[in-house]
Design brief:
Rossmann fold, globular, alpha/beta, 288 residues, 8-stranded mixed sheet
């Protein structure tokens, strides 16, 4: 895997050597995290698939923006679209966890023709519909006032998640490492903007195969979310892990990796259109 920066979007990303005829997997982390959460998956899959892992805006080594509106989900979607265009990727399989499930859903709304299949891990499709969420949404309303204060974030880094394997949903050391890296401002902005996503009507219009995985012990997004999504998405497979929590990417990497591999095989067996290698290394606005 090699590191790159797309200066036009301020997005840090990693790729392996893309090869024609292989599926392209895009691995998307959750709020306050970074692409380093996918290290085990990169090691497992880099000889099988074309891989793109990246830090979503405001996270890891990607650019941090000072305004709340810069974290509207549509901007995350356009970052991803710009990366695919920059790399010459026609179609891909999205693998999303937690907050990035909302990004993947909105990407499907706008660019579904670019998606061959989608994986939703510990997902949500309308975080603001529950009463506790509506209360929190109201409490977050003044967050945009932070824009009136100076914002000088330190350079981003990648958390070494090997230190936090098997940590629970509310593990304080891991959360402090994450939010300290992302900054509280960006974390609050993203949380506020997450409540603007209402994707229930989209679910029945998702035409590509979907894999949903969720832990029964998830205390951040209820497993019922994935159950509800699976009943609405026409080509959905649902995997529920009885003894798993929200942190599937770190805590259940082997099972998640197995499920992703089976899912990709399913897509290929169903006669997916051919995947191609990128046609260009980038343009003058981006550098390695």
């Amino acid at each position: 895997m090699t590191e790159h920066v797309c200066e036009a979007r301020g997005v840090y990303y990693r790729t392996n050597t893309f090869s024609a005829g292989r599926p392209t997997l895009v691995l998307m982390h959750g709020v306050s995290g970074s692409s380093s959460a996918w290290k085990a998956y990169e090691a497992r899959f880099e000889r099988q698939y074309n891989l793109l892992t990246y830090d979503i805006r405001g996270h890891g080594k990607s650019r941090k923006y000072p305004r709340c509106r810069d974290y509207a989900i549509r901007h995350f979607v356009e970052d991803l679209h710009a990366l695919l265009e920059h790399l010459g990727v026609d179609t891909c399989i999205l693998v999303s966890h937690s907050f990035s499930v909302l990004i993947a859903l909105e990407f499907l709304r706008v660019y579904q023709a670019r998606v061959q299949g989608v994986v939703f891990l510990s997902g949500e499709f309308d975080a603001g519909r529950h009463l506790p969420a509506r209360v929190l949404k109201a409490l977050l309303a003044p967050v945009a006032l932070l824009e009136h204060f100076p914002f000088h974030p330190h350079p981003g880094r990648h958390v070494e998640y090997a230190r936090y394997l098997n940590s629970g949903d509310w593990n304080i050391p891991r959360m402090l490492a994450d939010v300290g890296n992302t900054t509280w401002r960006v974390y609050l902005y993203c949380t506020k903007e997450a409540y603007a996503v209402q994707a229930e009507r989209l679910l029945t219009n998702i035409r590509v195969p979907a894999l949903l995985m969720h832990g029964k012990k998830d205390t951040i997004f209820s497993v019922q979310n994935s159950i509800d999504m699976a009943t609405r998405i026409p080509k959905a497979d649902l995997v529920v892990l009885d003894d798993a929590d929200h942190i599937l990417v770190l805590n259940r990497a082997h099972e998640v990796g197995d499920a992703i591999e089976r899912f990709v095989h399913r897509i290929l067996e169903e006669g997916a259109p051919g995947f191609r290698a990128p046609t260009r290394a980038g343009d003058e606005r981006c550098r390695r």
